[in-house]
Amino acid sequence: MKNKNLTALLEKYDVPTPRYTSYPTVPFWNEATFDPQAWKANVQKHAHELAHEGISLYIHLPFCEQLCTYCGCNKRITKNHQVELPYLKSVLHEWHTYLAILPSKPWVKEIHLGGGTPTFFSPENLHFLLANLLPTIQLASDAELSVEVHPNVTTYEHLAILRKLGFHRLSVGIQDFDPAVQYIINRIQSFEKTKQIFEWARALGYVSINADLVFGLPLQTSESIRFTIEKIQLLRPERIAFYSYAHVPWKSASQRRYNENDLPKAAEKRALYELGRDLLLQQGYHELGLDHFALAHDRLFQAAQAGKMHRNFMGYTTQRTPLLIGLGASSISQTPDAFAQNEKTVETYQEQIAQKGEATCKGHFLSKEDKILQKHILNIMCQAYTDWKADLAEVPLLQKVHIRLRQFATHGLIELRDTSLQVTEAGKPFLRNIASVFDAYLFAKENSNLPLFSKTI
Ligand SMILES: C[S@@+](CC[C@H](N)C(=O)[O-])C[C@H]1O[C@@H](n2cnc3c(N)ncnc32)[C@H](O)[C@@H]1O
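Above are the sequence and the S-adenosylmethionine SMILES. Below is the predicted complex in structure-token form.
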């Protein structure tokens, strides 16, 4: 595609759009109809009926010692490490509430410790959490156990203890190695320290390391992207998440600490992605789904090749389990019928757990239409393809999607047939826009002017 055309398209489609780690997206959950008792009953039903399919566990560990100003995640900044044990006891209390409705020793296919910064917690306290949790479950032989780490606060002991407990995947926060970018996002992180984490992890037997990078950060230039990706080549992570910077200052006030004029504009931002992508492809990485890359021997690449890559609140995964149980403040859980989210603030979460052993504050039960549209949005986000012929009669929106999709076909972003679409190479930057055609909530008139999502590019 000619550059001029691409620039025009990037401007046209650079509108607030969800990243579709769920459908319906959280702002459109119908909270009025959510009943925590019905939620529990639903978890119990699926846990028993689909016990053989296993569970994914996500544990949110929200603390960080220092505020990275670009960060859009749910976190609590503190240097007080006394918060660790009470928080972990609440997480275990919550898990025991779930255990009462799960089959005995439930079968678990995935555990992910996310944050915040899980390695804010001492190695002993992480051991305390897992030594209490692991004996209550059966781990599948191919279970994936992974943890997010910030190199500045991660020690050899952290990695050694987690490895001993069965963890074999790391996700290392990097974002950018350019000192000017690191300074403005308040995240000074040396290459040497990051390299040390990779060396320790490999020596300990971690089989897959993911690196988180972000494009579109303030002061980022083609030179900083080139510099960062050259350093990445020396580390050779198996996976790379090359996230589009989500500017959501109404949600993350720290993003107001830098000047919006320091943020690259849509076309510049996309050029940063394309430069990064081209360099990664030259280094032998494969592009997967939205903003993700992997080496050929990594399981995520193999899952993508086999059409089995999945997407949920944890991002792209190789596992698809009917039950995702999220423990900790702000965590989201999911069954085939419903979503539920825990209280977001640490204090409220801990109070609720102390009072009743659970801290669900909102959720959504999926209608038949939600489930069908969810399937098509997942197909597009994970396989870049979907076919809605079999569902046409069920969902009125599906009769209108062809008209809405024509603009993407005209621009060469999809190959559109009567009731199916295939995203083209040129269409990859617009995956979220294409998926959003199947989002019944986004197009409902009354929702159109709310600042809910970051822009697409
Ligand atoms: C919750 S953070 C945990 C990482 C870990 N605490 C660390 O700092 O290394 C997970 C990842 O989300 C991504 N992220 C956070 N805020 C973002 C934003 N505003 N836009 C895009 N990606 C973001 C970053 O790549 C980050 O590494």
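Residues 64, 70-73, 115-117, 148, 150, 173, 175, 212, 214, 243, 245-246 surround S-adenosylmethionine (CB under 6 Å).
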